Amino acid sequence: EQVAAVIPAAGIGQRMQSELPKQYLKLGGRSVLEWTVRAISQDPRIRAIYIAISPDDPYFQQQHFASACPIVAVEGGATRAASVAAGVERAVADGFTWVAVHDAARPCLTAAELEQVVTTALADEVGALLALPVADTLKRSSKTRRSEGSVAREHLWQAQTPQVFRAADLQRGWQQLGTDHPQLTDEASVLEALGLQPQLVPGRRSNIKITQPGDDAIARLLLFDDS
Ligand code: C5P
């Protein structure tokens, strides 16, 4: 089975003037996005990589990708879901039936995690995503930021990426829901809205999403630690 990777990287919007978007931060000699592309191309079943970028992104052209498969830039949309949908649409036009959606800001994905989630997805009716069982005690906060109570974490997982699904299911979901909801923060949500239940594949904490200041330092440790 052949799988297309789709990487949403179009979220630069209003930050662009002031600050370098996080996917273009440098980790050693490579940008976050270059590391991410390298990571997602490690499985031979991934045959093409579609990257959704903003039309006024001045950085993408300067990227040097190390990938065994073709890289296709597509124009992203106003939300993450719209950007992913644009990538999926192009992948479908190129003949792909399965897609592995992966955050641009997760450069520390390993070949083993990727292999597991793709293998599990392709053997499943619905598909699969990497996720992490919640390890901390969860608190519900009051309006004044006091701890009102604890939330049972027993059945709670943090969703990561890659998330590997049939393109047709995602497209059916977006047709029903639209792609303009900022709360569609992952692709599994789209399938869940259709009543489908993707498999959770236990991932690793090291598959971090570079989000906050300091996360890039953690990523450097993870990428360059050979102990
Ligand atoms: O900001 P956040 O981490 O939720 O963004 C998730 C991903 O979605 C980022 O990789 C961002 O570049 C991407 N995105 C996009 N198109 C948008 C908004 C966000 O591709 N319109």
From TrEMBL:
One of its GO terms (molecular function) is 2-C-methyl-D-erythritol 4-phosphate cytidylyltransferase activity. Pfam families: IspD. Belongs to the IspD/TarI cytidylyltransferase family. IspD subfamily. The record marks 15, 22 as: Transition state stabilizer. The record marks 153, 209 as: Positions MEP for the nucleophilic attack. Its EC number is 2.7.7.60. The keyword Iron does not apply. The lineage of its organism: Bacteria, Pseudomonadati, Pseudomonadota, Gammaproteobacteria, Alteromonadales. This is 2-C-methyl-D-erythritol 4-phosphate cytidylyltransferase. The keyword Protease does not apply. InterPro entries: IspD, IspD/TarI, IspD/TarI_cytidylyltransf_bact, Nucleotide-diphossugar_trans.
